[in-house]
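Moderator note: this is an archived Q&A kept for reference. The question asked for a predicted structure of one protein chain; the sequence and the answer are reproduced below.
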Amino acid sequence: MDITTRIVTWAEVCTHLEAKGTLERKTGEAAKLTVPVTPTPWAIELRTVSVAGETWLEFTSTIGEARFASPQAMLADTAELAIGGLAVSRDGSIVIRQVLPLDGMRLHDLDETVLAVATQAAKAAAGLKKHMSPTG
């Protein structure tokens, strides 16, 4: 498929990611990807979510544990992110999260979002130590 091809289904997302070699595991409407970024490959989880009755894709990537991180510093860093935002997951991890509508998404946009989330997550994880609170 050409990168300008538009996709509308979860199956098309998975087919494209399998062809690129980044799809590691798929279960139902969720998948785990391994993205080749420097210095090490980075994991992203991708799943479908419903927003106002429409199917969207949620991209998340864990960057570390939240329990000792400074909330103020992490919140300030969210403003610096080129894509997505920082959030705390239910298990207490800090994640970068981006949500985009699936219907009509171009393959190029899917590829760029996967790469951007992985790159931002790897960079944020490397800088996480500067956000450790004095008690952590």
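Archived answer notes: The longest helix spans residues 107-126.
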